[in-house]
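Protein modeling request. Please complete all fields; requests missing the sequence field cannot be processed.
Requester role: graduate student
Desired output: 3D structure, token encoding
Chains: 1
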Amino acid sequence: MNEKNSLGLNLCFKDKNNPLELFKEWFEAAKKSEINDANAAALGTVDKNSHPSVRVVLLKDFDNDGFVFYTNLKSEKSESIKNNPNVSLCFHWKSLLRQIRISGIASQISDNKADKYFRSRSYASKIGAWASDQSSILKNRQDLHNLIKKFENKFSDQNNISRPKYWSGWVLKPKEIEFWLAGENRIHERLKYFKRDNNWEKFLLYP
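Delivered output (207 residues):
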């Protein structure tokens, strides 16, 4: 019989008052078990016409301030966030039969933080950030390759390439975080944290 926590859930839910601590433990477990990209999450946004959109982004950092991902500030996702900062992330780790859903408010990170992360990227990724007019129409692939070559010539010094002003990051400050574990006969286990007045409350959900 599986061991249970104080709420009667599988012991993997622990007994944490801060969901960020539980996220860290589940994330570390996922990095060991997933084939690749344990930091991949589905990002949900809504545009100015109230049309929803979902795409996968890569989590690059997280702490008590929120969950950080990077992108072109002119991309569809960024334009949607500027219009409506209420966004959601969903991590699904099939190897663990676990899922985490996060919702909250997104805001742009500081230039200093964006610069620091940009410097850690590979040269090719930096060039790609300069060359890609993300989400706009591309007439043919050769146009993209020409732009890549253009910026490779411009930034021939691989150790001295600046961050484009239109490329940065967003941080999702969570209001709700739900942890989900698959159960037999779809009797799943769900634990939800809700932030109220800077304090986290937690409760169980029906499957």
